[in-house]
UniProtKB/TrEMBL annotation:
Entry's Gene Ontology cellular component terms: cytoplasm
Annotated CDD domains: GATase1_FGAR_AT (cd01740)
GO MF term list: ATP binding; glutaminase activity; phosphoribosylformylglycinamidine synthase activity
Gene3D superfamilies: 3.40.50.880
Keywords from the named record: ATP-binding, Cytoplasm, Glutamine amidotransferase, Hydrolase, Ligase, Nucleotide-binding, Purine biosynthesis
Name of the protein described by the UniProt record: Phosphoribosylformylglycinamidine synthase subunit PurQ
Main subcellular location of this protein, as a coarse class: cytoplasm
Protein function: Part of the phosphoribosylformylglycinamidine synthase complex involved in the purines biosynthetic pathway. Catalyzes the ATP-dependent conversion of formylglycinamide ribonucleotide (FGAR) and glutamine to yield formylglycinamidine ribonucleotide (FGAM) and glutamate. The FGAM synthase complex is composed of three subunits. PurQ produces an ammonia molecule by converting glutamine to glutamate. PurL transfers the ammonia molecule to FGAR to form FGAM in an ATP-dependent manner.
Quaternary structure, from the entry: Part of the FGAM synthase complex composed of 1 PurL, 1 PurQ and 2 PurS subunits.
Compartments in which it is found: Cytoplasm
Active site, UniProt feature: 87, 196, 198
Amino acid sequence: MTARVGVVTFPGTLDDRDTQRAVRIAGLEPVPLWHRDKDLKQVDAVVLPGGFSYGDYLRAGAISRFSPVMETVIEQAKGGMPVLGICNGFQVLTETHLLPGAMLRNNHLHFICRDQKLRVENADTAWTADYEAGQEISVPLKNIDGRYVADERTLDELEAEGRVVFRYLDVNPNGSLRDIAGITNAAGNVVGLMPHPEHAVEPLVGTGRTDGLGFFTSILKKLVNA
């Protein structure tokens, strides 16, 4: 039996179907998870996809953090379950404090949608093992609340512990401190990033490249070899 990856849908989630497709293309079984259900249906990993959950009221991800499904996700993540947060999912992870820092409005105050070049900084997480440190990839980016911020002490800790997973290259699209595009927790099982790897898994759509597929093949190998 193949590994099962849950994809959570909140009210206002936009990219759950795209994420399910990316999971399937990588050879995994996608399992839809509804925000009101605490039951994770015995999945092996969870993805919190992009979108505008609850309309981004209060703050992006602030209401979703209290959804019943997140109670179980938080518990399981602390126990080692791999969790990936993409865009709005990254915002939810910071609101739950599974990842440090916060996401603020882009420094230019505009929504941005573009292909974005990234550098892989950490290829040792559950979601990045199919990449190499220093590798450059290009995946779509689309957000208005994508500016990653944290206090200097937290930023220094992330750098010192190798927990910056991705960094923006060529241009910083939203003013994120230290060009940070994605980070991980200390255990390496929880990863959040603003760009959208699920939109770069087959050559006919997205960037026309498959640079994002490595997220999903990484977790496949992690789960199969566990």
